Amino acid sequence: MIRTCAVPFALAAVALLGAAPGTASAQKWYEKAVKKVEGKFTPAEAKPGQTVTFTLTVELNDGYHTYPLTQPDPKADGMVNVLKFPKPDKLVFVGKTEDPKGALSKEEPDLGIRELLYCPGTVTYTRKVVVSPKAAPGAVAVKLDTFSLSVCDSNNCFPPKKVPVEATFKVLDGPAVAVEQTYAAEVAKALEGK
């Protein structure tokens, strides 16, 4: 059975930072816990104005778990991953990022947490993306500004690690299509002054 952290995440992170961040010993947990971190667009090419989906997938080894971007219990707000997207350019990230589906839940009475969400196995975060109506055709490499990954095993929580994430996309040639009504105002506002 997978258990979540038994000590507050911040305290666990401080306790485990005995080795300076960036040293081999501080990073060993990542190699043991994480099989893969991958970002991708679906579809991988579209015309200006079209909407695609960005997916960030984290694949963990057995015995490890990670967290959503938000927790329902404010007392668990330190037990989250942090995901920040780049500023609007050829691609405009729109709407809200969706947390992984099927997160497990448990209570941590020692910490006063009534509901702590955690995610073992393969974890997927998704967000909609609109190809800028002004985008020129061609390949685009998109780097996330930040992906800070928090992982625990049955006994320990490890210091969060900033993981670089990059995904490629191709803007197709041709006239722009109308932006979906759901995202039209958000895209227009994001591209003001560009």
Keywords for this entry:
about 190 residues, four-stranded antiparallel β-sheet, three-stranded mixed β-sheet, single chain, mainly beta, about 15% helix, disordered N terminus
Strand-residue proportion:
35-45%
Oligomeric state of the chains?
single chain
What percentage of residues falls in helices of 4 or more residues? 10-25%
Uncertain regions spanning at least 5 consecutive residues: 1-23
- The largest beta-sheet arranges its strands as 1-3-9-6
- Biggest sheet: strands, sense, closure? 4 strands, antiparallel
Shape: elongated
Number of helices: 3
Q: Give Rg in angstroms.
A: 19 Å
Mean pLDDT: 87
Order of helices and strands: HHEEEEEEEEEEEEEH
* Secondary-structure-derived class: mainly beta
Number of DSSP-assigned strands? 13
- Quote the distance from N terminus to C terminus: 51 Å
What layout of secondary structure does this protein have?
Blueprint: H1 9-16, H2 24-33, E1 34-42, E2 45-46, E3 51-60, E4 65-66, E5 82-84, E6 91-98, E7 104-108, E8 113-120, E9 122-131, E10 138-143, E11 146-149, E12 161-162, E13 166-171, H3 181-190
Write a brief structural summary.
With 194 residues, this protein is mainly beta. 14% of the residues lie in helices and 39% in strands.
Report on the structure:
By secondary structure, the protein is mainly beta. The protein is built from 3 helices and 13 strands. It has helices at residues 9-16, 24-33, 181-190, and strands spanning 34-42, 45-46, 51-60, 65-66, 82-84, 91-98, 104-108, 113-120, 122-131, 138-143, 146-149, 161-162, 166-171. It has a 4-stranded antiparallel β-sheet with strand order 1-3-9-6. It has a 3-stranded mixed β-sheet with strand order 2-13-10, with no helix packed on it. Strands 4-8-7 form a 3-stranded antiparallel β-sheet, with no helix packed on it. The termini are far apart.
